[in-house]
Design goal:
about 550 residues, alpha+beta, Butyryl-CoA Dehydrogenase, subunit A, domain 2, five-stranded antiparallel beta sheet, 19 helices, 12 strands, about 55% helix, binds flavin-adenine dinucleotide
Length: about 550
């Protein structure tokens, strides 16, 4: 085993030097003077996208090489992943060597390792252990095992029994899921202790959030796994940019679940291009008037608190520097539409807010709304940071999204784990041509690949959580999000495929996992935008430095 692991390490080093070469090539092609030009970067999008995913895979390999030290099965999963990642790298580079600025055959030295660990025989060795060892141990220690058990039990008892009904009837999330999660402290995981939450600062906060999110998402992505994402995004913005009075006013109520949060960033004409948003907040007596249309605001009906990004600087040339964040109060509502008016007799009255849920193929329960604001009044004290917060909105929003991306990776791991378990059970139970589906080589190889993709997603998320706890890891949070969300599409697809025709029937939850997983690489930074504008750009800048 040590020899095999050494070979894995050497193979990863070879792969990393190819990816580094690609990054240097990209940096060279996209340099304008001393800096990386986004316009030039856009002329090399195929390379940018591919190096972003390849570098993310290499980061995953490094994490798994550490995991491999924990035991024999861990090592098998790690080696399986490394070989798989290298094969993927070859497929990205083959025929595009000049685009990457590398030589054909640069990975030749790693081929014997890949051959040994992509072989059906090796993958079948992993498959032989799936029933007993599943996707492998998490190795997070007793404290986090307890967190995992607690949220797992909640997901099993409260979320799973209603998840199918919510999905099929596009129903609202039952209040007892929200109150139960509040009792468990789920909404206070990122709220600092001094504001009555559970966050103590450091990696424990991030790890706790990742573990809880994974388990809730195992229950259901729409009805559980995403409930704590929005409160966390707003919490981070308030902690970073709010006044002391605002922290005391909002954070304890977020922690208890009294405030349910919706986030309104996206607009009909601006999704990936957040800096261009047009919804305005215009100063008026005692506050601001909000005008314009937001879209895809998840949970905006049930929410009684909206984190709204709006343009406070009317000068269009201010771009992303002209944006600010508001905390907008509203009444909670049920169902797929809402309409509120502000009492015309009060100061700042006469405003209107109207929302309509957009029907979606999955991710149901919270509903995502298009919301029109017409002169909606927001008091000045609800501008995050008050006067000092003017123009800071874009930066606060982006910081919140960094944590959101890590959480989205954890959501993907939870959905994948659920799909894997469903696929394994079905393949064991279903007999075709006289024997169980699991007994066929192809099924075994699929399930083995699922196992190491899931464990890599998990370990990679933990690693990023630790980095973020130490004040780093912004790039890695984007990487883990990009990588794991794509993996979730394959895992859920194959889990569904293992069910044959029943995979297409609504009576098995695996079809829900498949449609739910599909949203993961669209929101919290669409895959392409994340890879091109965040990951590739940062890698090119690093290569230039
Ligand atoms: C179910 C769901 C829930 C959501 N919840 C929320 C929420 O709660 N709050 C909120 O504010 N938003 C939310 N969103 C919105 C989500 O964040 C956006 O959909 C996402 O940012 C993409 O924006 P867009 O839809 O406008 O796509 P566009 O920006 O129009 O992108 C279209 C396509 O072009 C690609 N693309 C974009 N730019 C480039 C480029 N430079 N080069 C190459 N390709 C590019 C994109 O990757 C994508 O594939 C949600 C979306 C969904 C589907």
């Amino acid at each position: 085993m040590p020899d095999a692991l050494n070979a894995a390490r050497a193979a990863v080093d070879d792969a990393a030097s190819i990816v580094d070469g690609g990054c240097r090539h990209l940096a060279h092609a996209a340099t304008d003077g001393e800096r990386i030009s986004v316009t030039k970067l856009d002329e090399h999008q195929v390379l940018g996208y591919d190096v972003a995913h390849a570098a993310s895979a290499i980061a995953g390999c490094r994490v798994m090489l550490d995991y491999a030290e924990r035991g024999e099965y861990e090592s098998m999963l790690a080696r399986g992943f490394v070989a798989d990642a290298l094969a993927d790298l070859v497929s990205r580079v083959l025929g595009r060597e000049s685009t990457w600025g590398v030589e054909a055959g640069d990975l030749a030295g790693a081929l014997p390792f890949v051959e040994g660990h992509r072989s059906p025989a090796f993958l079948q060795e992993i498959a032989a252990r799936l029933e007993r060892d599943g996707t492998g141990p998490a190795h997070l220690g007793d404290e986090f095992d307890l967190v995992r058990e607690t949220f797992h039990r909640f997901a099993a008892d409260k979320i799973r029994p209603v998840a199918e009904h919510i999905h099929r009837t596009n129903a609202d999330i039952p209040e007892d899921i929200i109150s139960g999660l509040a009792e468990l402290g789920g909404f206070g995981l990122s709220v600092p202790e001094e504001y009555e939450g559970f966050a103590q600062g450091g990696e424990h906060d991030y790890l706790g959030m990742v573990v809880a999110t994974e388990e809730l998402s195992w229950g259901s992505l729409g009805a559980g796994g995403s409930l704590i994402t929005r409160p966390e995004i707003l919490t981070r913005a308030i902690v970073r940019g709010g006044t002391e009075e605002q922290k005391r006013r909002w954070l304890p109520r977020i922690a208890t679940g009294e405030l349910m949060v919706g986030v309104m960033t996206t607009e009909p004409d601006f999704g990936s291009d957040v800096g261009g948003i047009k919804v305005t907040a215009t100063p008026t007596d005692g506050g601001y008037r909000i005008n314009g249309v937001k879209t895809w605001a998840t949970f905006a009906g049930r929410a009684n608190t909206i984190m709204l990004l709006a343009r406070t600087d009317p000068d269009p040339s201010a771009g992303h520097r002209g944006l600010s964040i508001f905390v907008v109060d509203k009444d909670p509502s049920t169902g797929h539409a809402f309409e509120f008016t502000q009492d015309g007799g009060t100061s700042g009255g006469g405003g209107r807010m109207e929302g309509r849920a957009i029907d979606t193929i999955g991710y149901r329960g919270m509903h995502s709304y298009e919301v029109a604001f017409d002169d909606w009044f927001v008091p000045a004290e609800n501008l995050v940071g008050e006067a000092a917060g003017l123009g800071k909105g874009f930066y606060l929003q982006m910081e919140g999204f960094e944590n959101g991306r890590l959480q989205t990776a954890a959501r993907a791991v939870g959905v994948m784990q659920a799909a894997f378990e469903a696929g394994l059970t079905y393949a064991q139970d279903r007999r075709v041509f006289g024997k169980p589906v699991i007994d066929y080589q192809l099924s075994q190889v699929k399930l083995a690949r699922m196992a190491f993709l899931i464990q890599t997603g998990r370990q990679f998320s933990y690693d990023v959580a630790r980095k973020m706890g130490g004040g780093e890891g912004a790039l890695e949070a984007s990487m883990v999000k990009a990588y794991v969300c794509r993996a979730a599409e394959w895992v859920t697809r194959e889990a569904m495929q293992l069910h044959g025709g029943m995979g297409y029937a609504e009576e098995f939850p695996v079809s829900r996992y498949f449609v739910d997983a599909r949203v993961l690489s669209i929101f919290e930074g669409a895959d392409e935008t994340l890879c091109l504008r965040v990951i590739a750009r940062r890698l090119a800048e690093q290569a230039l430095a």
